[in-house]
């Protein structure tokens, strides 16, 4: 189901987290659990992956990840504010050290002038810090979702290996 390059990236994230004694959790909307699926496809991942929430609806984002209803109303589900709250909520719910969250417009419908198809926000919660990243992916629904998975894992890898970026 996943390209070999994605599997290798997921293995690196798991190994790096394991080596640092850290745990991982996910909070996904537009990817519908693909990041968690990829991570848990790898044998032995249960010692690192605490869990993942698929929060496709706004109600699920509020109920499961404690996303503020006002944030969803004012900034929308596809926003930096929402993915940061999703990542923080997943960190708390799963007691994980590093969490990644994704919310975007995978298409083919649902895009707007300000939030077109392919727009994906990715949130990261790690060591008490949070970051949000915006991406504009191209292609069909599957392509957008797979690019989002790769970007999420890349952000996790970069957070786990900050010295490699210099």
Shape: globular
Q: What is the number of helices?
A: 6
Which structural class do you get from the secondary structure elements? alpha/beta
Distance between the termini: 33 Å
Largest sheet: 5 strands, mixed
Rg over C-alpha atoms, rounded to the nearest angstrom: 15 Å
- Low-confidence region ranges: none
Strand content: 15-25%
Order of helices and strands: HEHEHHHEEEH
Average pLDDT works out at 96
Percent range of helical residues: 40-55%
Q: How many individual β-strands?
A: 5
Strand order of the largest sheet: 2-1-3-4-5
Structural commentary:
It is a single chain. The chain is α/β, with parallel strands linked by helices and 166 residues long. The protein has helices spanning 4-19, 34-41, 58-65, 69-74, 80-94, 141-160, and strands spanning 24-28, 49-54, 98-104, 119-126, 129-136. Strands 2-1-3-4-5 form a five-stranded mixed beta sheet, sandwiched between helices. Strand 4 (119-126) and strand 5 (129-136) form a beta hairpin. Helix 1 (4-19) packs parallel to helix 6 (141-160). The longest helix has 20 residues, at 141-160. The chain is globular and about 45 Å long.
Please write out the topology.
Layout: H1 4-19, E1 24-28, H2 34-41, E2 49-54, H3 58-65, H4 69-74, H5 80-94, E3 98-104, E4 119-126, E5 129-136, H6 141-160
Parallel strand pairs: 1-2, 1-3
Antiparallel strand pairs: 3-4, 4-5
Helix pairs in contact: 1-6
Task: Offer a few descriptive terms.
166 residues, globular, alpha/beta, 5 strands, 5-stranded mixed β-sheet, 6 helices
